[in-house]
Amino acid sequence: MTKYKQLAADLKNEIQLGYYSEKERIPSLREIQNLKSCSLTTAKEAYRILEEEGYIFVVPQSGYFVHPNISSVISGPQNEFYPAVEADDRIQQIMRTVMDPKLISFGAAIPSDFYLPLGGLVSSFKKALKHKEIFSYGDLQGNSELREWISKRTSIQGYRVNAEQLQITNGCTEAITFSLLSTTEPGDTVMVPSPIYVGLFQILETLKLKVVEIPYRKDVGISSDEYEKLIKRHKPKVFLFSANFNNPNGILMSETSKQSLAKISHKYGIHLVEDDIYGDLYFTGVRPKPLVSYFSEEPTGPKSFLCSSFSKTIAPGLRIGWVASKNGIRDLSKRTRAYKISENNPTQLAVIQFLKLQTYERHLKFLRIEYKKLTEEYTKLLSFYSEGILKIQKPDGGFVLWIKSPLDGDKLLNESKKIGMAIAPGSLFGLSKHWDSYFRLNVSVGFSPKIREKLLQFSKLFLKKRKT
Predict the structure, then answer these.
(1) Which of 31, 42, 91, 224 might form a disulfide with 27, Cβ 3.0–4.6 angstroms?
(2) 89-113+361-467 has CATH 3.90.1150.10 classification
C-alpha cells in the first residue's frame, strides 16, 4: 500500500473510532505532515481520498472538517477499486449448501412453489403443445408475440419500447451478460453498488472486467456526488445496478436520485445496465420507474439496457428473461448469435399462453400482499426472539431480508445447518469484507408452524452467543 493510501486509511480509522466528531476541524495539511512524519504531497493525496469518500470537506480559508453526516459514511463500506474479480470456489461451495434440498433454504432468492401459478402454467404448456411450430427454431430475437406483450407492459414502467427493441434471453442473468458483452471489452471498468447480487461477480470475472464498488448510503441509496467523483477518478465504461428493490438489501432509489444518476451517466458517457427483476414486487404505491427511463438516449450516445425476467414472479425454471434497449438492441442481438441460434421456443409459447389468460396482474397483486405480510411477520418474530440483537433492514419490495448480526455470516451458515436450515452469508454480496456480519433471508419460504419453529430455533443462536 502506498504511503498516502496508508495515511488515508489511518485517518479514516481515527474518524470511525470517534477521535474526531461531526463538523470538527481536523489537522491542517502542514499539521498532519508533522504529526504523521510524511511529505506534503502524501498529506494532500490522503486528504483528497478522504474528501472524495465523504469523510471530510474543505471550508476555504478555514481548513478541513469532518463531514456533518459522517454516520451515513462509516455505516457502509468505502468505495474500492478491484483490477480483477475472483469469484472463488468458496462462493460455489456456499451456494451448494444454500441450495441443499435436505435443508430449508432461507438463503436462495427463489420463490417457493406455493407462490407460483403452477396450475395455470400446466394448462398453458398443454395449450402450447398444440402449436405445430413448437419444436422448430423460433425468431432470433424471441417470440414476436411475447415481445409485443412485454413491450406494451413497459409503458406501465415509464420505459416504453417496441417489440423490435427487445431481446428474449435465458433469464435475467443472461440478459445482463449480453448487455455487458455489447458495451465492454476485457480490461474495462464497471461500477457496481455494494451490496449486490452475488451472481454478477461471476459474470464480471468471466468477462475480465475491472470493478469499482460504490456503497449504498443510509437514507440516500447511491450518492450522486460520490458517483460523479468516482466516474472522474476511475472512468468506468458501465454502471451496473438495481434501482428498484436491490438484492440483497431491498433498497428502492428515490425518483430524484434516479434522475440525478441518469443525468450524470449521460454527461460522462456511461452506459447503464439495470437489473429490474424485482421491480413488479413493490409493497405500496405504484410500480416504480426504472432508472433508465430518465436516461436521455441518442443513437450515437451512451446506451442503456433494462434487464428482467419472469423468474421471481411466474417460475424460475422457465428461464425466460429479456433485455429492452432503445439504442443498443441491434448490437446486443447480433452478439447473441455467437452463442445460440434461437431461444427456447416451447417455453416461450407456453408463457405467452399463460399471459393471455389475463391473470398476471392478479397474480402480482397476490404476491405483493403476501410478501409484504411475510416480511412484516419475519421481522417481528426475529426482532422479538433475538431480543433486538438482529438489525433488520426494512425492504420496500421483493422477498428477502438483509440482516446484520453479531455473528460472522459464514460461521452462522454452519450453525444454521445444524438445525436444518440455510441462510446466505453477507460475504457473498460484495468484494470487500464489510458485509461479513450480514446475512440474507428469503421470506417466500412461507410462515407455516414448521417454519415458525425453525425461525425460533434460529433466533436462539444469537442469544447463546450473547451469553457466551
Answers:
(1) 31
(2) yes
> Is 80 exceeded by the pLDDT of residue 89?
no
Q: How do beta strands 424-425 and 438-442 pair?
A: antiparallel
CATH, domain 119-357, list 3.30.70.360, 3.40.50.300, 3.40.30.10, 3.40.640.10: 3.40.640.10
Fold classification of 3-74 (topology level): Arc Repressor Mutant, subunit A (1.10.10)
Mean pLDDT of 453-466: 84
pLDDT in the model for residue 90: 59
Q: What is the DSSP string of 15-76?
A: HHTTSS-TTPBPPPHHHHHHHTT--HHHHHHHHHHHHHTTSEEEETTTEEEE-TTHHHHHTS
38-70 pLDDT, tens digit per residue, is 999 999 999 998 988 888 999 998 999 998 877
Question: So where are the chain's domains?
Answer: 3-74, 89-113+361-467, 119-357
- pLDDT at residue 138 in the model: 84
Arithmetic mean of pLDDT, 82-109: 78
Nearest to 440 by CA among 209, 203, 195: 195
Q: Which three cell numbers stand for residue 80?
A: 474500492
d(CA 273, CA 429): 18
Give residue 102's Cα distance to chain centre. Answer: 28
3-state secondary structure 85-123: CCCCHHHHHHHHHHCCCCCEECCCCCCCHHHCCHHHHHH
What is the pTM assigned to this prediction? Answer: 0.85
Q: Is the pLDDT of residue 75 over 60?
A: no
Is residue 408's pLDDT more than 60?
A: yes
Measuring CA to CA, which residue among 34, 30, 98, 129 is closest to residue 429? 98
- And the C-alpha cell for 426? 453477507
